[in-house]
């Protein structure tokens, strides 16, 4: 899963990213952007590691994409390169400046937020309009067109013309027929206010409608955490009333906004965490691991993490009848420990 970091110039994207990379993640720089891979901290994985003493432990991972281009141009036209870099992301982190600039300019978070939102909506509008024109032309020429796709596009057009992001309407945001257009405003967004060092509060603003989950981070302050020893860092967190490092909070909220849950596998001396969207069926979860597992799926043996902990060992949980046999359509639950049985 991939999240794009967007925000106006000077909002603190690079600073936040630095705060995020304290765990020395892998960083790849590509053409116009950086990809940062971070492991998702999970105490359950740590516990499974103690229980199964595997040779290898693999945590779930998330990728963050930082575009290098200009987000926003004064003429209201976003930089196409910038947007293209985040088109393939599953969600966006929108960094909004809520700190005073060195020159003293007061923050205006709502205005800034809406500036970029408008830009995103405008970029989608162009894509949708072009596609509708194309379909209309095809229809005129007697080609078969998908009436359903046309209807979804028309509905999207109306929303975008009304300045409403597509994510506000799950039917459109999740529409399979629109997936290929990688519409920006259809992606879930995590709003991240980058606050002054002393500021613990969320800025007052007329919260826009829709599934926004704001998160407060004091970018500069929390970036400096990385340079401290663990003991100093702990003291620092208490002194500034920070609950958990910025990295942990950003990662946790990222999973939340993506609607992800975690399941575990223990296979041949390897404990591993996997993340899938809530509502994923066992068959699709198997496919995430390997396409052969999906093709040859027989059944899933499932043990809830809490039951495992309560029983103490896997064998004991099995004896107590806690290990269930589930089929292809079983909906994977957060914390499931799954053993897939399959034919190849
Ligand atoms: N006081 C304060 N300053 C910050 C904070 N976050 C970032 N800054 C400062 O704001 C300036 C811009 O931060 P960057 O992280 O470079 O912003 P950016 O979004 O990456 O900017 P561009 O790459 O130009 O788009 C820098 O001088 C930072 O030191 C913060 O939380 N508090
Ligand atoms: Mg930057």
Task: For this entry, give a set of tags.
alpha/beta; Rossmann fold; Ubiquitin-like (UB roll); 13 strands; binds magnesium ion
Radius of gyration: 23 Å
The main sheet orders its strands as 2-3-5-1-6-7-8
pLDDT averaged over residues: 88
Helix run count: 13
- If classified by CATH, what would the architecture of the largest domain be? 3-Layer(aba) Sandwich
Remind me, CATH topology of the largest domain?
A: Rossmann fold
Low-confidence stretches: none
Structural class of the helices, strands and pairings? alpha/beta
Major sheet characteristics? 7 strands, mixed
How far the N terminus sits from the C terminus, by CA atoms, comes to 28 Å
Q: Work out the helicity level.
A: 25-40%
CATH superfamily of the largest domain: P-loop containing nucleotide triphosphate hydrolases
Tell me which oligomeric state these chains represent. Answer: single chain
Number of domains: 2
By CATH reckoning, the class of the largest domain would read: Alpha Beta
Strand content: 15-25%
């Amino acid at each position: 899963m991939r999240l794009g970091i967007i925000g106006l110039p000077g909002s603190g994207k690079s600073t936040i990213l630095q705060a995020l990379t304290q765990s020395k993640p892998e960083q790849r720089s590509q053409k116009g952007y950086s990809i940062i891979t971070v492991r998702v901290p999970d105490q359950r994985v740590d516990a499974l590691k103690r229980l199964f003493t595997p040779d290898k432990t693999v945590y779930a991972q998330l990728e963050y994409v930082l575009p290098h281009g200009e987000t926003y141009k004064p003429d209201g036209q976003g930089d196409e390169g910038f947007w293209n870099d985040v088109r393939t992301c599953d969600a966006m982190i929108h960094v909004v400046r809520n700190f005073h600039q060195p020159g003293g300019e007061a923050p205006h978070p709502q205005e800034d937020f809406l500036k970029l939102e408008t830009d995103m909506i405008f970029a989608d509008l162009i894509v949708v309009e072009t596609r509708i024109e194309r379909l209309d032309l095809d229809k005129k020429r007697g080609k078969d067109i998908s009436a359903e796709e046309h209807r979804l596009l028309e509905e999207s057009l109306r929303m975008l013309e009304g300045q409403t992001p597509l994510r506000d309407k799950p039917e459109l945001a999740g529409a399979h027929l629109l997936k290929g257009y990688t519409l920006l405003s259809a992606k879930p967004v995590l709003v991240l206010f980058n606050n002054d060092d002393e500021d613990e509060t969320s800025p007052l603003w007329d919260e826009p409608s829709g599934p926004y989950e704001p998160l407060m981070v004091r970018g500069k302050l929390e970036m400096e955490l990385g340079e401290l020893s663990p003991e100093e860092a702990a003291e620092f967190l208490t002194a500034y009333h920070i609950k958990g490092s910025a990295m942990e909070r950003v990662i946790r909220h990222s999973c939340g906004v993506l609607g992800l849950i975690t399941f575990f596998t223990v296979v041949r001396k390897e404990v591993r965490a996997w993340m899938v969207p809530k509502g994923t069926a066992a068959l699709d979860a198997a496919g995430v691991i390997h396409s052969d597992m999906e093709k040859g799926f027989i059944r899933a043996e499932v043990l809830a993490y809490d039951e495992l902990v309560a029983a103490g060992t896997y064998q004991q949980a099995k004896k107590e009848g806690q290990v269930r046999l589930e089929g292809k359509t079983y909906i994977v639950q957060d914390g499931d420990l799954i053993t897939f049985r399959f034919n190849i």
